[in-house]
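anyone seen this seq b4? input:
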Amino acid sequence: MSDFKITGNASPVVGKEEFYTISNPLTSLFPHTAAPKSPFDTPVLWTVHVLEYGRWRKTKENDKKGDKVSYTFLQRSLQRDGIRIMATKGDQIARIDVKPQSADKPKINNIELLDKSGKKPSAPLSYGQTLKARVHCLHMEKRKVYVTLWEDDAAGAGHNKANEKNLLDTRSGIVKDGIVDIDFLLKPSFAKIAKMSKDEGKIHEYYVTTDFDNEKLASKNVNVNDLETPVAPYKGKTTAPPQQPVKTAAPTQPVKPKTSPSSGATPPKGQITKVHITDTADRPITGIFKEKQLKVWIDSKELIGKEVRLRLYDHDNGSPNDLLADLKFPIRANIHAMVIRLDTIPRSLGGNLFQEGAEQELFAEVEVFQTKTSSINEIVKVDAKVFKQDQGEVVNTVMKIFQPSAEDKKKDEKGECERCKILTKDELKLIFTDASDTMLTDVISAFNDGAKLFEVNTCLRKAHFFAQVLKEVGTKLELKKPESMNYSAGALKDGYWYSTGTNWVKGNLETGEGGYFRNGTKKNFCNLSYFRTNNHIADLYGRKDLNSYSDKGVQKANEDMLANYAYSNQYGNGGFETGDGSKYRGKGLIQLTWKENYEKVYEKIKVVDASVNIVTNPDKILTNIRYAVFSAMGFWQLKKINDVIGNDTNESIANLVTGKINPNDDADAKKRRRENYKNITKTVFKVDECKNGKSSEKGVEGQSEYYTYKSGKIKLIKGSVKKHAYYVEKDGGKFKLLYVLDENEHGMVKIPSTGSGFGRYSGVDAGGVSGGETVGQGDHYLLPKTAAGLFGIISEVNEKGWEIHLGDMSSENGSDPWGAGSSHHAGHGHLGTRKGLDCDFRYLNTSGKSYQGNNTDSVFDKDKNKAFFNLAHTYGFRKNFCANPRTIFGDSVPGVTHDRDHADHGHIGLTNLDLEEVSSLNVNKI
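predicted toks r here
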């Protein structure tokens, strides 16, 4: 083993100077003898590398020389995914990974358990109520804290291993002003766990823990009444309907059942044994419910003819639950079902859309009037879109719910693409041509179960999904093997190898050296950088060939150990000794890797099917098709691939998808994924024929609407949701809707790749970090207002019968587009104060179509390009560039200035948009 090592603090404190040295073998052998220095000695070179997007990037400002150097780490180093110091002397390399620590030591002071209003409970809580865990933190601002809820069966305070089986829920929150509040709903199902203890009485005990600094900190216990204890009805935010008699508010304390003072009195007969919710086909609800009706089932004994009250609530963390429906009716059977139409309930009854989010958590409470006792069910998650969308102000009333009529059952979703809804065997056969019939059937079954819930449910999304899957598992759809680690020791140490070639160098059984091709025709790349500086591990476990490539004549690869070392101490994996590297290496349809990803993906999966636990059973991904398919679909949802795809059918989008799925792919692998989409899956799923695969031309309520006049004037009716509809004036003063575009989290809209009168050129930039700046993916984003002006130009270009091709605009976060290997001209018309305001284009030829070439070429049409710049000027684009415009056009063109870099393409930049915001507008629409 080499004596060339770095000595220094691996946990430096921010702001404090730390020294790092190279160990000297002479000093270790003869501590009182200094090693002589020669002027011809090779100096030690020091560099610092940071981990970004899964890859190490060398910093420019931290290069140093000498046997001893110092570094001072800044506050921003705390946010780095990884920092590595490397020392090089000749062919010797040493490294040390450092994790800077805050100058102020973070600390969790204590954890409180409170009721949903933030007060200490004065009496035992009840199932169905909210328990608030408040964590008091020091020097942990904006950090995420995880809290776990437990049921306590053990004696004494604090956490006890005897309670490990009683883990109920884990949630997280962000520290703000030294405090993080995390709400837990005390679900009725928790009572079943509590009752498993034979010593459990009528009071159940709960507590929470949080892990910090390798220690599990526990709160004090809070008491909860047994489920059989009567619970008072929940008090909603809404008021009763005005036509009904005024009633007193529901009591805040549980109502005790009336009993006779005589011990021999007969208790009231009849009870509710169970309340649960299903869909209208009587199937249990898993995942997010997206249908417009549901059924509430009431199981009871001896209550036929007795009147009950059914209330449907939206569960609110930290505030009173919202009352959505209130019904009274007699029980007609021991198992009584009541259908509730969600599409008649105003969305606003569940609270503000932007506060509540895209889902509502519903539960039902049924009260028996005779006994004043009630029972509730577990929460079900419902897509907020199924509720009735409000036309005006929030309606503060409780809806009356009635049984659905036959007419109400008619589908209101017209014109949908049927291919989007379901995956067929005929489609899959065309992609996985060598897969068995059984494998295809099983994959289709699992995929169709999850497609809607994981939102891989359009032709375009399926095309991208299976283009990636095809690259990972091949045409046989093989799932039985994890990610291959069958690397030769030489490949691991060098980073590349020849899999085919000439001049085979035979391996040596005596020395243990493996054989290899001295020259090659196919060069392969190994991105497992760990082994470049840990050659002895590569030699110990890597494959070593003898007489021919991959014959394993000297040594077989120990793939498990290679994975354990290569993937140790990263992204949730423990050290090599834990076996996490092999356990959580690439598996399934999209080769899911890293424990952290397994855990995050399971959070997505358990909404659909909690039994598919890929964290505790990762190897089932290799043997159980449902595990394999759901792990891939959950990862797809986790990485927000649908946001990357949008409605863009262009093949270059496949590069962005690959960047999310496998950012470390080499150029050849990226090309294969892109060609899978272009040549196979895009055709199989008929993406170009699917309206869901094209940009939306359908408006939605609450959208902003831009009306672009031919004069250059734009009028805006501002909406309440992040959708923007673009209308352009056509002949006769009528307006035509071109597109409805979504606004992303950075305030940008994505311009379609193609459309009437326009297209795009060049590939899609992948983004990354350039010059310390985080650059977003993509290069076709503009501010919503800029898009309004651009569509005005495009509309007139189309009317002339021309076709303009557009290039760089801004990336998804507004920065200047960039990808590895390209220049990044930050601030040049695309960044800074120019976020989302600029667009490149290719010049028009004599046919009125963009071409690739210079403005001095013979095909350049002076009049058409001058007309285009004049159109841009009309719509407010007046920071425009062209090489030598006076020479090219013969005179000056308004808003156009010379820029030598714009000989092969033009540039338009918005500066003077004539925009007026109006509350309403009376126009004729086509």
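The CA atoms of residues 326 and 786 lie 48 Å apart. The first helix runs from residue 25 to 29. kinda curious what u guys think
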